[in-house]
Amino acid sequence: MSTQARVLASIAMAVFLAGCASAPPAKVVRPKVINPIVMNPNNDMVGAADDVLFRALGLVGTPYRWGGNTPDSGFDCSGLISFVYRDAAGIALPRSTREMIVMRSPDVDQSHLQSGDLVFFATSGGSQVSHAGIYVGEGRFVHAPSSGGTVKLDYLNKPYWQKAYLNAKRVLQPGQLARNP
After folding, report:
1. Beta partners for residue 86, in sequence order
2. Which Gene Ontology molecular function entries are recorded, alphabetically (predicted)?
3. Count of CB atoms within 10 A of residue 135's CB?
């Protein structure tokens, strides 16, 4: 085989192998639908709703921090929700709003919200969830709104939240929650 033929063969082999080594096209990853996990199965759901309400209200004023999930580190919206449910009700929820909105819990009409329900918003427009909070009653919800802010109590009937409102979920439903083995 001539030198020129060997060089061409080497180049062809390198191109072939490079094509095999390239990453596959990116897939659209859909969140896995899961059940909330009750870590304390003997918990009274009415009492748990009160505990969630008081724990959420007690965190008003905690600094916002993207990715934060404790009072010491600060909270983002899903970190706040996960912390409150785990701490006050013994329920492990998914960490992201995208996973929370598709979890196996009953959807709730906005006119039938109860304390402890999760409320979801598309703050960037469209129908993709980007924010969430915990409904505390009387048209109000607790949430960790944005960088530089703090956990706050807000009204659902504000035009901004009404425009962005997507859905609500009821996590505190006796008999419909997953149990830890």
Report:
1. none
2. cysteine-type peptidase activity
3. 25
Q: Establish whether 112 is a catalytic residue.
A: no
Rounded Cα gap, residues 141 and 156, in angstroms: 7
- Return the half-sphere exposure (C-beta side, CA atoms, 13 A cut-off) of residue 31: 16
131 a catalytic residue: yes
CA distance 159 to 45: 32
Among positive and negative, which fits the CA dihedral 115, 118, 119, 123?
A: positive
User: What top-level class would CATH report for the domain 37-179?
Assistant: alpha beta
Bridge partners of residue 33, in order along the sequence: none
**For the chain, percent of residues with pLDDT exceeding 90:** 62
Give the pLDDT confidence of 150-178 residue by residue, as tens digits: 999 999 999 999 999 999 999 997 644 43
Residue 58: count of CB within 10 angstroms of its CB:
14
- Cross-strand bridge partners of residue 132: 120
Q: Which of 55, 143, 169, 170 is catalytic?
A: 143
Token pair 């425009």: residue: 163
- From the list 77, 113, 144, 151, the catalytic residue is 77
Predicted model pTM: 0.74
